[in-house]
Write a structure and sequence with these properties.
Strand content of chain A: 25-35%
Mean pLDDT of chain B: 95
Largest sheet of chain B: 7 strands, mixed
CATH topology of the largest domain in chain A: Uridine Diphospho-n-acetylenolpyruvylglucosamine Reductase, domain 3
Distance between the termini of chain B: 60 Å
CATH superfamily of the largest domain in chain B: Aldehyde oxidase/xanthine dehydrogenase, molybdopterin binding domain
Helix content of chain B: 25-40%
Distance between the termini of chain A: 57 Å
Number of strands of chain B: 29
Number of helices of chain B: 20
CATH class of the largest domain in chain A: Alpha Beta
CATH topology of the largest domain in chain B: Aldehyde Oxidoreductase, domain 4
Structural class of chain A: alpha+beta
Largest interface: A-B, 25 and 30 residues
CATH architecture of the largest domain in chain A: 2-Layer Sandwich
Shape of chain A: globular
Number of domains of chain B: 3
Strand order of the largest sheet of chain B: 3-5-1-12-9-10-11
CATH class of the largest domain in chain B: Alpha Beta
Shape of chain B: globular
Number of domains of chain A: 3
Oligomer: heterodimer
């Protein structure tokens, strides 16, 4: 379990990283490395060049903006999870991060890295989609913002161009009176979930995002659906997968259970949130 | 003995100071090996092209089967032949013409480092003729495809044993039941995988080999023969071992031969450290069986006849013979005495990783078959499950109890001692058995599903043939103890020191124990079959006694006293009642050697004493210089430990998740040397058993690829999946077979897991559980099949 040979550059700036990526079609960005390094060791990925962005200054910030909370590309999951600003401005981010792997992995892994790795089994991509967030990227052609809905093309496939580096992500703030909830069911503590769900309730609007159910992070609008039909309504829009840990039928059952749980929890959160605002 | 002495090993282990094979530093010239493994479950090898490897910088050698000569080119040994194993097959160190499982070794590359070695492996081009694989017992039994062309029906062995006429007894019984059961594969999964380092010493014309094994003497003998060396030219040293659980008793692994073979050929030290994926696909698995049980019983649930057929998946080869299915077939009986018993098994080849003993070694499957049967009998009769068991127990006054069967060691299956009714009473008390129905009703009223299960087992431990020990009292008074079996975390350095401190009369902290080093004790068997405490513990005790007898003899001479009047306390020999008449054991050690160079204080102190008979030579006949004791222990047969587990679980009505509410263990391993270590063994066994019952399986697809060959997808439980507390009670019925009255404790904790969880989930759900392990997804499927029976 040793990686195949690769070249390595430590970028001092985003521009340097972009130019290194542009110069080598086999290049890969290394941030927290929690997904990439195991892939290298198993020789499931063999990039010709690793562009390490860990020394790029200014990318680790977590800042509150007018519309939400911005997380820099090098902000570790643990730092985002520890942030009171994040918890206050958009509690769903904190709720979901608590389910991301184990403490040691959260200490090293980055939230933005997880977003652009585009794993449908990961917690943060579906949170970004549910909240209607975005990712700021920089490439040879300059900077652009990719809305979460345009970010996920397929399994482990994002819409970033090869020479683009994600520099930050924006998680929109929780609207006054709105509520959120997150839950997942994993075989072991800290494992990738067999299925997970995040809910956002805002007035009559009810939306639920699912991880590990399909091969891309998926959000379903359940506005107006009676409570006892939530699960079936969600399933009408999802095609649960079969794998060695859960049959599609069992996943469908988890979708029913989780949908009911997170919608109810998000409603309670909205009510509590409302009271808090009122005070 | 009997005290919860803190383990002397823990300081090192907990502070990261353990020293494992990969830590052995043979210097900057050390080369590193990697193995090309078959990507196919079944294929003929048409050609191996290593051309692209030869010009790779840093590669020193590439071996394929064609490069091996003499005994190295022959198949690996079949360690434990058996007359019923009519079609035993073993693999070659490197595949010859054919591969029979994904992971089988094909080529061995030695390079400057492991990175280059893996680069080289990736460049070897093998041309295969891919053959249809045999995966799973159903395919093996069908026999339409063959793993080995010359093994019809994929049948390695068929063995039948019968006591009485089981089928007639069943036919005549008032009640009859049949059960079809399955249990899936898992594996030992030590956190340290396999590993071997070898250094050829040209000046000394000998080989030094460090390997992560459960039998250093076994590896030594195998390496000597395969490499054409005399035994005296080979030293095998086993440093700290990061877990064994059975897989490391298999020997020699291909790498254990190829590493020294290359080291000698290249004149450089060579190291192989297995990685996790290799461990999954090229070491060993266990547990997979399909079972059919027929039972006849009376109104009280007494089993009048028991007829068990089972099919055992032995993987692609049978290096370890029939040990696992023989243990299943005999230990299945547990604490019970059926009126008549017939058991027949078929051991079948499949194109998967070999199956060799994993902690419990066939017993979990046997316990599962028997205990599922007991539960089915109780359900049929509407009786309490403990009552049906009690009706079948061997009673305390029936020991020794001979089942009339032949056990794994070729000796009669004769239980030496036990008290099963007392164990059951303790367990019922510990888990709250009688109060459970009320609790279950109370929970049901809240919409919660809880269930309780129990399972009983008997474990033959401490099998022969022998172990030895050497005890040496140095002139400093420190005591050096060596026993040849190995240690993979059991705490031998603690318990053997306890035994020596007790018997010899020295301070515990003055005793140092070495295990698994053939330079210190070349005659040994190994650490498996819950045998270390019984075998080496007894040998250590006997060796310490010999050292003590000699010490008393010399001290009596020096103190001009009768040996019977002497005592040894804290390393000082004194005349009872006359504390001034005393001599340190270190001084006795000086006196034991006529060559008294006065290098230390003890030697100077010794000058005041005079010993020996001037009319005899300085070392009289039948004497040896030095204060040492050596002895061996060899029992007539195994000693039988026993235990009973109970678990209370809650199952989620929606998600089918299983939560453990309470886990209780009553355990009887005879006299306890160190209760804390025994409880640690139980904790570890229960944790491993929870893994096997609720989490782990080997997910082979139909082409024979192992889909979950990583710790991400093979769900070994974390500490978060194990209950915070395990309630343990001990019963001590001493074994009459050894001087300490002890029985083995290493494997016990894992034996009843599949049975006890199946029982508890069945009780919670009201569904018959016939297949283990069971995941939430499996339980959900089972629920649906009951709601919508086909």
């Amino acid at each position: 379990m040793k990686p195949a040979p690769f070249d390595y550059v430590r970028a001092a700036s985003v521009a340097e990283a972009v130019s290194a990526l542009a110069g080598d079609p086999g290049a890969k960005v290394l941030a927290g490395g929690q997904s990439l390094v195991p892939l290298l060791s198993m020789r499931l990925a063999a990039p010709s060049l690793l562009v390490d962005i860990n020394e790029v200054p200014g990318l680790a910030d977590v800042t509150v903006e007018e519309t939400g909370v911005r997380v820099g590309a090098l902000a570790r999951h643990a730092a985002v999870l520890d942030s009171d600003d994040v918890r206050r401005v958009q509690p769903l981010v904190s709720l979901a991060l608590a389910h991301v792997a184990h403490a040691t992995i959260r200490n090293r892994g980055t939230t933005v890295g997880s977003l652009v790795h585009a794993d449908a089994a990961a917690e943060m991509p579906v949170v970004l989609r549910l909240l209607g967030g975005s990712v700021e990227v920089e490439g040879s052609a300059g900077r652009r913002t990719i809305a979460a809905d345009d970010l996920y093309l397929g399994p482990l496939e994002s819409s970033l161009a090869h020479d683009e580096v994600a520099v930050s992500a924006l998680f929109p703030a929780l609207a006054p009176g709105a509520g959120v909830a997150f839950d997942e069911i994993a075989r072991r503590h800290g494992d990738y979930a067999m299925a997970g769900a995040a809910a956002l309730v805002d007035g009559d609007a009810v939306r639920v995002g699912y991880l590990s159910v399909s091969d891309v992070p998926t959000v379903v609008d359940l506005t107006g659906v009676p409570d006892d039909e939530l699960g079936e309504a969600a399933l009408a829009r999802l095609e649960p997968m079969d794998d060695i840990h859960a049959t599609a039928t069992y996943r469908a059952q988890l979708v029913r259970v989780l949908t009911a749980r997170v919608v109810a929890a998000a409603r309670s959160h909205a009510a509590a949130h409302d009271q808090q605002e009122a005070r | 003995m009997g005290q919860p002495v803190q383990r002397v090993e823990d300081q090192r282990f907990l502070r990261g100071l353990g020293r494992y094979v990969d830590d052995v530093d043979t210097g900057p010239g050390t080369l590193h090996a990697a193995v090309l493994r078959s990507p196919h479950a079944h294929a003929r090898i048409l050609d191996i092209d290593v051309e692209a490897v030869l010009d790779l910088d840093g590669v020193h050698a590439v071996y394929t089967h064609d490069d091996l000569t003499g005994p190295m080119a022959e198949p690996l040994p079949l360690l434990i032949p058996h007359p019923a194993l009519t079609h035993g097959r073993t693999q070659h160190a490197l595949a010859k013409d054919e591969v029979n499982y994904v992971g089988e070794a094909i080529a061995f590359v030695v390079a400057d480092d492991r990175y280059v070695a893996e680069d080289a492996v990736a460049r070897i081009v093998v041309t295969y003729d891919v053959l249809p694989p045999v995966v799973g017992l159903e395919a093996a039994r069908a026999g339409e495809r063959l793993v080995h062309d010359d093994v019809p029906g994929n049948l390695a062995a068929r063995l039948e044993q019968e006591v009485g006429d089981a089928r007639a007894a069943i036919a005549a019984a008032p009640h009859r039941l049949e059960l079809d059961l399955t249990i899936e594969r898992s594996a030992c999964m030590p956190l340290e995988g396999r590993g071997t380092v070898a250094r050829w010493e040209p000046d000394l014309d000998r080989l030094q080999l460090w390997t992560s094994t459960q039998t250093s003497t076994g590896v030594r003998a195998a390496v000597a023969v395969k490499l054409g060396l005399d035994l005296g030219q080979v030293d095998v040293i086993t440093p700290d071992v990061g877990g064994g659980f059975g897989v490391k008793v298999v020997h020699p692994w291909p790498e254990e031969l190829l590493v020294p073979y290359a080291a000698r050929a290249l004149g450089r030290p060579v190291k192989f450290t297995e990685d996790r994926r290799e461990h999954f696909i090229s070491s060993a698995h266990e547990r997979g069986q399909v079972q059919h049980v027929e039972v006849g019983f009376d109104d009280d649930g007494r089993v009048l006849g028991l007829d068990v057929e089972f099919w055992h998946d032995n993987g692609a080869y049978t290096p370890y013979g029939l040990i696992v299915p023989i243990i299943t077939s005999t230990q299945l009986l547990g604490p019970y005495k059926p009126g008549a018993y017939r058991v027949v098994f078929e051991s079948l080849y499949t194109n998967t990783v070999i199956v060799t003993p994993y902690r419990g070694a066939g017993r979990p499957q046997g316990c599962y078959a028997m205990e599922r049967t007991m539960d089915a009998v109780a359900a049929y009769l509407g009786k309490d499950r403990t009552e049906v068991r009690a009706a079948n127990f061997i009673q305390p006054d029936e020991f020794p109890y001979d089942h009339g069967l032949v056990f794994q060691d070729g000796r009669e299956l004769e239980y030496d001692s036990g008290d099963y009714p007392a164990s059951l009473e303790k367990l019922k008390e510990l888990v709250g058995w009688d109060d459970f129905p009320a609790y279950q009703r109370e929970m049901a009223a809240q919409g919660r599903r809880v269930g309780i299960g129990l399972a009983c087992y008997v474990e033959g431990t401490g099998v022969g043939p022998y172990e030895g020990a050497h005890v040496h009292v140095e002139t400093s008074g420190k005591v050096k103890v060596a026993t040849g079996l190995t240690t993979q975390g059991q705490g031998h350095a603690t318990v053997f020191a306890q035994l020596v401190a007790d018997e010899l009369g020295v301070r515990f902290e003055d005793v140092e124990v070495v295990t698994g080093d053939t330079r210190r004790m070349p005659y040994a068997v190994g650490t498996y079959a819950s045998r270390a405490a019984v075998m080496s513990g007894s040998a250590v005790h006997l060796a310490a006694r010999r050292a003590k007898e000699k010490a008393l003899r010399i001290a009596a001479d020096a103190l001009e006293a009768d040996p019977a009047d002497l005592q040894i306390v804290d390393g000082v020999v004194s005349v009872k009642g006359a504390p001034d008449s005393a001599i340190d054991l270190g001084t006795v050690s000086v006196l034991s050697n006529p060559l008294r160079y006065a290098f230390d204080e003890a030697s100077k102190a010794a000058t005041q004493f005079s010993v020996g008979d001037n009319s005899l030579p300085p070392v009289p006949e039948d004497e040896e210089p030095g204060l040492e004791g050596k002895d061996f222990y060899s029992p007539p047969r195994a000693t039988f430990a026993s235990g009973m587990h109970a678990v209370i679980v809650e199952t989620d009505p929606e998600t089918a998740e299983v939560t453990i509410l309470k886990y209780a263990v009553v355990h009887d391993c005879g006299h306890l040397i160190n209760p804390m270590i025994v409880e640690g063994q139980i904790h570890g066994g229960v944790a491993q058993g929870i893994g096997g019952a609720l989490y782990e399986r080997m997910a082979y697809d139909e082409s024979g690829q192992l889909l979950n060959a990583s710790f991400m997808d093979f769900l070994m439980p974390y500490v978060t999946e194990i209950p915070d507390g395990i309630d343990i009670d001990h019963l001590e019925t001493p074994s009459p077979l050894n001087p300490l009255g002890i029985k083995g404790a290493g494997e016990a904790g894992v034996i009843p897991s599949a049975a006890v969880f199946a029982a508890a989930i069945e009780d919670a759900e009201g569904l018959a559980i016939r297949a283990m392990p069971i995941s939430p997804s499996d339980l959900h499927t089972l629920r649906l099949s009951q709601e919508h029976p086909r």
